[in-house]
Amino acid sequence: MASDAGSSAGDPTLRRRIEPWDFEAIFDPRELRKEACLLYEIKWGTCHKIWRHSGKNTTRHAEVNFIEKITSERQFCSSTSCSIIWFLSWSPCWECSKAITEFLRQRPGVTLVIYVARLYHHMDEQNRQGLRDLIKSGVTVQIMTTPEYDYCWRNFVNYPPGKDTHCPIYPPLWMKLYALELHCIILSLPPCLMISRRCQKQLTCYRLNLQNCHYQQIPHHILLATAWI
């Protein structure tokens, strides 16, 4: 991931940045918000310049909107070479995964890395298979951690002048829980992360349901990082 950053003051990308309160609310891994947001950056060919923008769900999911936008605005032939990084508040659903896989199949010169804040309806087997298909097609899928949140804050958020280090700090536990579940998905294991809503104040509850196969197949360092061994 690139390391360039800069203050939003005088930034030519200012109009393409999102507001701090939007970022804090939509990308909070503890909240199951309906809104979805996609922050993305593109590097074309050997050019070192990074082009950044953002998008949200409309009548279609943000991933599909991105694909249609990028293929319609440029002469995007199959030989076009570029690297794309997505920061998504929700992981792609199975339909979006299918659209992404087809997009990349038609454009072998494109590489895609996806960071996600949360897993979208992760107990749905179609969504789980969709993520596996993405990875099989060469896409890198990872859970956002503190460095990614900080990077997004500095490069995609219209933060007040002098507040470049004031990125919201989320407890690492939620990131680790999602990371553990993503490993289960990749390894075709049963779900281990259970998410529910409490009626009182609509609090989100997370709990793990680890089975023997989880302990046998999930890498030791992943279980160790989530304090389950």
Account of the 3D structure:
- The structure is a single chain.
- This protein has 229 residues and is of the alpha/beta class.
- 36% of the residues lie in helices and 18% in strands.
- It contains eight helices and seven strands.
- The protein has helices at residues 20-26, 62-73, 94-106, 125-136, 146-156, 172-186, 212-217, 220-225; strands spanning 37-44, 51-56, 82-88, 110-116, 140-143, 193-197, 204-208.
- Strand 4 (110-116), helix 4 (125-136) and strand 5 form a beta-alpha-beta unit.
- It is globular, with a radius of gyration of 18 Å.
- This is C->U-editing enzyme APOBEC-1.
- It catalyses: cytidine(6666) in apoB mRNA + H2O + H(+) = uridine(6666) in apoB mRNA + NH4(+); a cytidine in mRNA + H2O + H(+) = a uridine in mRNA + NH4(+).
- Residues 10-134 form the CMP/dCMP-type deaminase domain.
- One of its GO terms (molecular function) is zinc ion binding.
Give a short overview.
This protein has 229 residues and is of the alpha/beta class. Helix content is 36%, strand content 18%. The protein has 8 helices and 7 strands.
Note the total helix count: 8
Tell me the Rg in angstroms. Answer: 18 Å
Order of helices and strands: HEEHEHEHEHHEEHH
CATH class of the domain at 20-169: Alpha Beta
Work out the number of β strands: 7
Structural class: alpha/beta
* CATH fold assignment of the domain at 20-169: Cytidine Deaminase, domain 2
Largest sheet: 5 strands, mixed
User: How big a fraction of the residues is strand?
Assistant: 15-25%
For the largest sheet, list the strands in their spatial order.
2-1-3-4-5
Could you give me the name of the CATH homologous superfamily of the domain at 20-169? Cytidine Deaminase, domain 2
Helix content: 25-40%
End-to-end gap: 31 Å
Gross CATH architecture of the domain at 20-169: 3-Layer(aba) Sandwich
Low-confidence stretches: 2-10
Overall mean confidence score, pLDDT: 86
- Note the overall shape: globular
